[in-house]
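Exercise: predict the fold of this chain.
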Amino acid sequence: QRLCDYLKIEDNSRNYITLMPCNLFGKYDNYKPERSHLIASVIVKLHNAKVNNKNSVEIWGDGKVRREFMNVKDFADSVWFILPMIKHLPNIINIGTGKDYSILDYYKKAAEIIGFKGAFTFNLGKPVGMKQKLLDIKKINDFGWYPSNSLESGIEQTYSHYLDLPR
């Protein structure tokens, strides 16, 4: 935000704002275990458990912390939505779904889509992070933008893309 404020002072003929997205996921996510984010990691873990006939998958912590995730397509859509009205927007605007789910909920939704029928175990010795991360998206909603992709359809599309990757 400070850089945007500075750039406006230096050249007020241009408009700069800061878009703050929630956690993103989607088609070209990183599926490498050492670098992947939650949803990509969940997809890999559940897929591998399914194809290797594992009867359980480990979740770090107790699965109760809550996170907000949005399909990257919705973030791209929000940017195109915002561009024509950039002069009327505040300096910072949050982009998200306005909904959060527990980590366990993400595992359950992905398991249903992937077809994993096993159980979940909880590794309470692993870190879990903050209890909740949810953006206030009232500003962008007031301008008329809402995400159009459901969590389920986003996970389905992401999993389909994952299946198409070379192994």
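Check your answer against the key: The longest strand covers residues 56-60.
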